[in-house]
Amino acid sequence: xxxxxxxxxxxxxxxxxxxxxxxxxxxxxxxxxxxxxxxxxxxxxxxxxxxxxxxxxxxxxxxxxxxxxxxxxxxxxxxxxxxxxxxxxxxxxxxxx
Length: 97
What we know:
By secondary structure, the chain is an alpha/beta fold.
């Protein structure tokens, strides 16, 4: 069983390409994809570059307050932030896993 971590530690693991889950399970990564409530919000390329979809109200696609908080915290760990439409087209993945 995987240890559940604080959100900032989950984001650090995503940046490093490692698996992690938050203490509530709402934020998780398989080392490549970053999920908020099972919706993909981030992608880590083979090169190590981390790209985040801006799933916030100002970003154009608000999902929930918690997802907005996850995106806000993940900005510090991401190399790039994209509009949600561009993000989904660039890094296709079923909305829910």
